[in-house]
Amino acid sequence: MNAIHYREDDLYIEDLPLSEIAAQFGTPAYIYSEAALTGAFESYRAAFANLDPLLCYAVKANSNLSILRHFARLGCGFDIVSGGELARVLAAGADARKVVFSGVGKSEQEMIEALNADIKCFNVESLNELLKLNTVAGRIGKTAPISLRVNPDVDAQTHPYISTGLKDNKFGIAYDAALDIYQQAKSLPHLHIVGIDCHIGSQLTDAAPLIDALDRLLGLIDQLSSAGIALHHLDIGGGLGIRYRDETLPDLSAFAQALSERLQGRGLQLVMEPGRSLVGNAGILLTRLEYLKLGEHKNFAVVDAAMNDLMRPSLYSAYHGILPVTRREHLATITVDVVGPICESSDFLGKDRQLAIMEGDLLAVMSCGAYGSTMASNYNTRTRAIEVMVSGDQTRVIRSRETLDELLANEKSCLDK
Ligand code: LLP
């Protein structure tokens, strides 16, 4: 059963009515289903069983410590992009030997922290980063395990802001330069070449570009092996999409089969960096309708969540389903833009939605488990929402609601200095 579902006219998450959760914890609130998290992880594990990949969950999708700890306990590794994310995975009890470090702008300090933690691999994104890593590792008496993040120049056919594998994107090392840079890496004393990496974009609804990217990488791996450079692992990044609305998605088993055929006999460990597909549909943003503003041209449902809580609609015009927590069949349905209280016209969560609602009602903004809370801000001096994990009929606060004191602390301490 879907973790978020109606029983009669009430929307539930696992075995709890969302109305009860709102009464207990207030709104806006991010609510997650633990069973949905586990289920998404298990689907990967089942589909890819015969490849036995190392799943390195992309922490940026949702970096809540309790969620990281849940995945760590399931045996997951992590893909991090900052020293902050490294600190999070270590605090959550992750095994550093299952951590890969991506990102175009790793600082010296971040390199030192990751070297000292003995992570599995640095996904290096430029020649200058490679040279710096070699120097930094030498200085502290370490050898850095590296992959090059290769830009395979394939079109991921997704939103341009979340497409990363084209020549025009800032990510990775140009395909044609990779062989030469691997050879330079081989000659550097404080680096140890362990793999190859790519990540072509996010919310992919077709696996074909991922398979094209893999084929490009395999071509390169053959050239590397002729040049005497053998790799231990191949990291194909993340990117598999989820259903926000009516998207058809790649079949995981068919994708796994395509990978299996290509990797057979190569002796390469497969690494994947899924983010959204592990958490996206496991969470909702729960919000309360403050005002119905009915007009001649347009109706607005002003809710207590806003673009600071969920940026995706404003930033990418992303669609998130919006469901009433109580279905009111006797009420007339109206067409509304669901908007927040922030002073920006781009502060909307959904446009032109058909809803039968009245003031005080609760709404669930769906599929908010990924890139929801992690992209939240304090704009308009709004405190960050509480986050609650549900398991069966049990709730657990996994991030308490930010208080104004916390929000103002770093500025108050500077007043009158
Ligand atoms: N690996 C790397 C190196 C990445 O940059 C990303 C995401 C992932 C893995 C995970 O990709 P996923 O499996 O989640 O698609 N804020 C945007 C998404 C940005 C994705 C950035 N990179 C959104 O809300 O749609």
TrEMBL record:
Record carries keyword Transcription regulation: no
Pathway the protein acts in: Amino-acid biosynthesis; L-lysine biosynthesis via DAP pathway; L-lysine from DL-2,6-diaminopimelate: step 1/1
A biological process from GO: lysine biosynthetic process via diaminopimelate
Occurrences of domain Orn/DAP/Arg decarboxylase 2 N-terminal (ranges): 40-279
Superkingdom as given in the UniProt entry: Bacteria
Statement: the UniProt record of this protein carries the keyword tRNA processing: no
Cofactors: pyridoxal 5'-phosphate
Functional description taken from the UniProt entry: Specifically catalyzes the decarboxylation of meso-diaminopimelate (meso-DAP) to L-lysine.
Subunit organization: Homodimer.
Protein name per UniProt: Diaminopimelate decarboxylase
Organism encoding this protein: Paludibacterium purpuratum
